[in-house]
Design goal:
single chain, alpha/beta, Rossmann fold, 3 domains, six-stranded parallel beta sheet, 14 helices, 13 strands
Length: 339
Amino acid sequence: MKKAISLLAAMTLAVSLVGCGTDAAAQKEAEKAKDETTEQATADTDTTYNVGIIQLVQHPALDAATEGFEAALTEKLGDKVEFTLENASGDIPTCATIANSFVSDNVDLIMANATPALQACETATSDIPIVATSITDYATALDIKDWSGATGVNVTGTADLAPLDGQADMLHELFPDAKEVGIIYCSGEVNSLYQANEITKNLEKFGYNVTAYTFSDSSDVGTVVQTACGSSDVLYVPTDNVAANCAETINNVALTAKVPIVAGEEGICKGCGIATLSISYYDIGYAAGLMAYEILANGANPAEMDIQYATDFTKEYNPNIAKELDITLPEDYVAIEME
């Protein structure tokens, strides 16, 4: 990839030499520098960027984020960008394998979709720019102690965190008489632990007794949900990739027990929740794509680019589960389109 700084240097040389005006050799050198600058600019126009994408697992939310990312870069670069999309199928070691493969291929940029994908990429390279999306908290994911808004390393991107105080407000609006709230998440998801800790603080302000129920992988989800349902009036499931992949299992247990679930995002709510305060994953993916464009085409430094957050949130509900539980949602809730 051609560097903008080399263009500037060549142009500066051309101007300074022309300014002398009295030396034919200098004039000739100036013309040569100008020609080289023009050729370099033309070469830049013809550059094709190779972008590797690691998506942790196939899921509607992550799929939408990838779709938005590709759409933004394609709109900006047309056929000057090529994507290699690899899905780790929920396996964290596979994320590392894919990341190392992209580094070996010397791609121009890596997009990491979900926290384990980001962590694998950050371990694999400190040189290739990384733009991530569907990350709840970058400071937690990258173990950054003094958070300033930018990572300070070769990573930037967009976050998928809806306001946790807003999520707690929603739960209280719908279930003000509940006493026991269970939070279900995967113990291996560091961002889920962050969400659980933060929303617990907000829920306790309403007087709820909050208990965390964690599972290690998909094999023990059903058992953990069964235990949680036995002790909870309502459950909360954060934006957890393993939980999202096991939404059907969670729903089978919770719906049978008649225990409602408030979810952290639309995809999980569609599978097992009654309501969510959700963002558009397509939109945060699209925003990440625009950030990638600034890095590839305009030389932006990811270390200095502030993480971007969703600004629009929608109260949504699952009409099928609402009907099953005989719960009527307030009028300002929007029904999720079910397949």
